[in-house]
What we know:
The chain has helices at residues 34-47, 55-59, 62-75, 86-97, 112-120, 134-150, 173-182, 205-208, 237-246, 248-251, 258-273, 276-294, 314-326, 356-369, and strands at 11-14, 17-21, 79-83, 103-107, 125-129, 156-161, 186-190, 217-221, 231-235, 307-312, 329-330, 332-334, 344-348. It is an alpha/beta fold.
Amino acid sequence: MKILQSGPGRHIIVQNKKCLNFCSNNYLGFAQDAVLKKAAKQAITQYGVGTTSVRALIGTNTLHQTLEKTLSRFKNTQDAVVVTSGYLANMVVLQTFFTPNDIVISDELNHASIIDAIRLAQIKHKYIFKHAIMKSLKKALQQARALQKTQPDAKVLIVTDGVFSMDGDIAPLPDIVQLAHSYKAQIMVDDAHGEGVLGKHGRGIVDHFSLHGAIDFEVGTLSKAFGVNGGFVAGSKHIADTIRTKARQFLFSNALAIPDTAALIKAIEILMIDDTRINTLWSNSHYLQDQLKTAGFDIGHTHTPITPIMLYDEEVTKKAELVLFRNNIVVSSIIFPMVPHGAARLRVMPSSLHTKRDIDLFVTIIKKIFRPSSHRPKQQSQRV
Ligand SMILES: *Cc1c(COP(=O)(O)O)cnc(C)c1O
């Protein structure tokens, strides 16, 4: 674990050393944004630091209400409910709306918080489909339909990440919607890495594919591109009202912190009127990815700023992280159990804060460390 002696900006200080930061999820630089900081300070002055109650009792501040209204406008849904993390937001959906007798169909590469949420809801009938393979999803839906013959009341939920955090690829949501429609299944999308990144103004994957209204549960995090902390579920008014009256995470866990809530309102307001951060994020991402590809690196099949550099071998990958750090660059190495054995990689996270020269510097150094072709495995590892 690296200990930061600074905020997660373009540069970070680690072990008293100023380094270029390519590992935070601070896609748009909001974590240190002056407007957000000012809003948080003002909120502290006015309301203090803590809420000291769950939302359902006396923990709901007027700021929470404003954030939820702003968020539902941003997401183009009827309503939205915020909780203290994205992890918790996944728990909210599975535990509140599904019983052990319902059927959940989940992409094999879904985030750990989705897997845990399915476990928490004690779902008895869980089908895992091959990552983003619609034939595999269809097979699971057919199995679900067969099961419904004996349990006609069982609901069917398809759940997927929007953007897959280790590879940066995007769920084939239009195809999922079509299949869900023919099999009368509901859909939940966890768009943690798509919020603030994909779609118009960063509205996320649903906007990216123009699928507003076609997704039952839109889960997101406020801790990545939004730069603060928290999670949310956006959807119909019925869904939001049910969460506010029934979700255990809403009834039995403290409200989102006051300064966080105030800062988040500003983040979303800025996103809705100003695309400069998002445009810079994407141009930096393309610049980085083009250069890495030209240099011969395997960056997988990313369609987002998340940029894996496949090194396959775990020791090689950990060593690469160290050598980069010696060169004052911080990048995360991703190894088992985050990815399967033999699929180790560096995960480079460009942001709107970086300059083209930062990226040039990174690429120059990584090229010096590796001659890309010498790190191809003899046989591509299989996903587990
Ligand atoms: C990061 C992430 C989460 C967790 O969000 P937190 O707000 O950090 O709890 C959930 N789902 C996915 C897909 C993520 O990438």
